[in-house]
Amino acid sequence: MNRRILLASAAFAVFMTCLPAVPFPAPQDTSKEELKLQLPKPMFVGTPRNIKTANLETITGKSRGPFMVPKGTHLLSAKKSVSSSDMQPVIGELSFVTDGEKSGEDGYFVELGPGKQWVTIDLGQKFTLSAILIWHYHSQARVYRDVVVQLADDPAFTQGVVTLFNNDHDNTLGFGAGKDKEYIETNEGRLIDPKGARGRYLRLFSAGNTSNDMNHYVEVEVYGLQP
Amino acid sequence: MKRAIAFILTLAALGAAAYFRFYEPQLRPMHHDEANQAVKFGALLEKGDYTYDKSDHHGPILYYATLPAAMALGQVRFGDVTVALLRGVPAAFGLALILLLPLFGISLQIEARVVAALLIAVSPAMTYFSRFYIQEMLFVFFVLGFLISLWRYILRPDGGWYFLAGIFGGLMAATKETSVIIFAAAALSLFGVVVREKFFFRKTNMPVRRRIFAHHIAAMAIVAAATAAIFFSSFGRHPEGIKDAVNALNIYVERGSFGPGFHAHPFFFYLGPLIVSIRGGLIFTELFVLLLGLAGMFFVFLPHRNDESMVDLDPLPVHRSLGVFLVVYTVAATLIYSLIPYKTPWNMLAFYLGWLILAGIGAISIYRRAGNPLYRAVVVLVLAAGIAHLAWQSQLANFRYPSEPRNPYVYAQTSPDFLKLVGRIDALAAVHREGRDLPIKVVAGPYEQWPLPWYLRDYFNVGYWTKAETAGDLGRNPLVIASAENVEAVREKLGGQAVEENYGLRPEVLLTLFIPTGLWDAFMKSKEAGR
Q1: What CATH superfamily classification does A33-225 receive?
Q2: Rounded CA separation B139/B61 (Å)
């Protein structure tokens, strides 16, 4: 009898120990679907000397994986008007930011002047946002400095301002020291989860990059739900 | 061309040349080669001593040319030396090229000299490398001086020009070992002139055929050797420098031909970007100069129906033998430099100078052959537009994209982001109790250490290691600058007690700065207080 109890106890203990390792299918959130993206072709392979530091996200070389968004999510930013701190770029046009062309080749990016610069996308009305994707410049492994993404209700960014991303860790831009990490540009773009934030104007800051002082945008995509 | 117009245009050329060479020299971070040369100069400045290194750094002229400028400006300590001082030296030589042109005398007519001066003043290649603290622009200056002296000697062998040619030749040799290429190209040019005079124009009374004297050439060689020896031996203090300079030729021949490594480039490495460079939305081209240069070459060989000796009636604005001399030099030097596997973009200047002078000849030849005033007006307008376009490109190359790889003159250039690293170190030192005595450890391979020794020249507690394992104890809370392959090891040694920041050294090469957390907190506190 004791032996049976002992064996049963051992079997139960083994079962309980293994339980967490057994893959159970995650409960399906039927209100969400995978965000479908069209990525441009990659322009470089690997990371610069395979660098790994605490303040820089590591590129694994693998795909980012699926990103789930609420059903009914649409691309909101296509062909929407763009303004900038540099209204006369030497290379490219501000409309490139939302023209849907994400190629890393020449002729697809707009180049803003040196130092701190921003672009603002006017979505036309207030939306609940599901995802934001940014391609600064992905034909070379580089890190853009002080990337800050804000959402607001007015073009002057005085009402309903929400900071969605901030890797300005030393508070150069004055929005507070950011906790997000720096990252190396790739063809996958940088995905930012706005966590359902609502707003009409999206402003993206940067302050040069590790290769030069300029600021570039190949494309910015803003996804969300129709009101 | 009226003298007043020539004078005004020459002044304009000098003004433009000065602007493109001296304005805001600090815009571009120091290239690692510049930093290397600067540190070498620093040793001469502070220790008063120089020893020729036959395997690297080229000759001593750059340092000896910088020394009086530093003294004159009171920059007697290496820590005081500024980028403006260093880059001002090649800039001055780049500007002085224009002042050398009149020494061609009437052999190169004033109109052609003026156009050549304008082109030299605004050529992006010439302006960009005039702002580079390396030997090249000094070398090009001596090359032009040597070629002019050689030509003047051919014209008038009894005028002492062979002596000046010897001095310029010696200065060339003491600047860069590649002077042998120029000597070879110049010898071919001389040969070209002799052939022209002896076989094609036997009846003309040109001086060349009879008046090249062996003893003059020997004297020229002796003067050149003596001039070079003075500098290579550090004014007699290190006589072994002379022997090393001779031995260095073998090293450079071997490196140039068989072991160029990173610097191995195809034949069109020089001519390609001069024709056109289209990268990342930026277009650079000096095709205008090349086409005018080709026109100059064409007109030099285009027979003139008048008597050869009637130079005044010839629409060619150059003595035909000088034309041949310049064409042979330019073609020979272009070919030799392009054929050698070892290539760096600044090497092009020694032959591109010939193209620029020939472009001046080509432009005036076209103008004179245009005949009709309307056609001539068109030629002047096209010429003005071409020069303006070159000037605009110089503006972009030097002031907007001085470090940008899309700029065809940029080569393994330090990123502007690197200056943020330097700025961060300065800001951290300002809040550190030891100030500029704060310990800094650089853990990076040789190619990733430069140009740090220049930028950290005024820090007194800096050490350099190639591997984290050999960097010793990191326990005294130093700042650590690590290259990518050393980051993990440094982090392990520091036990995670540091804030990490990444800075671009060159495109796709990052350095990581480890800042002790206490120092970071003090820095952020002071930053917030000052906001």
Answers
A1: Galactose-binding domain-like (2.60.120.260)
A2: 9
